[in-house]
Specification:
This protein has 268 residues and is an alpha/beta fold. It is built from eight helices and five strands; from the N terminus they run ααβαβαβαββααα.
């Protein structure tokens, strides 16, 4: 199980890194649009009073991954304001049902993480946001730091105060700085507002997709570490039990030799 988890973790990291150039190019486009549009007219960029939070909870389908899920659940328990949840992973659905929290939907996503499945969950949340049923879109997920560290994070996605704030939240997005320094004259057709309305929802879907990929990498990494720890503990326990067995066996042999010697001494 350790080797399988290590293989899946490596593939998940490769998939997440493979999509970075695509995301960076979209960030370039949004950064170029920012100074050319009236951001106050877009619903994603309009601030509102937060009455009900909308939260996407990314958990695992299976256990044996150490404290990964329990750390995420601690963030959920700390939420004291009204919230509605959309969940990915059976463990999260079971926890929300057990704690009687408001669960809107449960989306199954396998280890391949198809974009279409993540898009369905993201668009469901965006639809609820635009309809006014929720006032925020946030993602609780295990952020992949390294093989040994997966930090539980609650990342806000919507609403945004402005485009630059959203671009600043994208981890590792060095292309944004290049786009800000780009002073070339650009002609945007049909017009910047139309392009923004088409591009921003797709970019939100892509951003959530990257968070799901990071969550999958964190899951496989945590499972690999958990299985390695279990293997090491089992080997240590096996060594201790083998030592106790040898001591007991040696004691039994010694006792038999003493009994034989005592019998011969008595008969002699």
């Amino acid at each position: 199980m350790e080797l399988v988890a290590a293989s899946k973790m490596k593939k998940a990291q490769q998939v997440a890194l493979a999509g970075r150039p695509y995301t960076e190019l979209m960030a370039d486009m949004l950064a170029a649009l920012a100074p050319r549009v009236d951001e106050s007219k877009h619903p994603f960029l309009t601030a509102r009073e937060v009455k009900i939070r909308g939260i996407l909870l990314l958990t695992t389908d299976k256990g044996l991954c150490g404290p990964l899920n329990s750390n995420l659940f601690k963030l959920v328990v700390d939420i004291k304001t009204p919230a509605k949840f959309v969940v990915v992973g059976r463990k999260g659905a079971q926890f929300l049902a057990r704690t009687k929290r408001d669960l809107l939907a449960d989306f199954p996503i396998d280890d391949r993480v198809p974009f279409s499945a993540v898009k369905a969950a993201a668009e469901f949340l965006v639809e609820k946001f635009l309809a006014g049923e929720i006032d925020t879109v946030e993602v609780i997920y295990p952020q992949f730091k390294n093989t040994l560290v997966q930090e539980p994070v609650c990342r806000p996605v919507l609403p945004l105060s402005n485009l630059r704030e959203f671009l600043d939240k994208i981890e590792g997005d060095s292309s944004v700085a290049r786009a800000r320094r780009d002073e070339r004259e650009m002609r945007i057709e049909p017009d910047p507002t139309t392009v923004l309305e088409a591009l921003l929802p797709f970019y939100v879907n892509r951003h959530i997709y990257e968070l799901v990929l990071l969550a999958k990498a964190s899951e496989h990494s945590a499972r690999m570490v958990a299985m390695k720890t279990a293997k090491d503990n089992a080997n240590k326990l096996l060594g201790d039990l083998t030592l106790q067995y040898n001591k007991a066996r040696q004691a039994a042999i010694t006792q038999e030799i003493l009994e034989i010697a005592a019998a011969q001494f008595a008969t002699g």
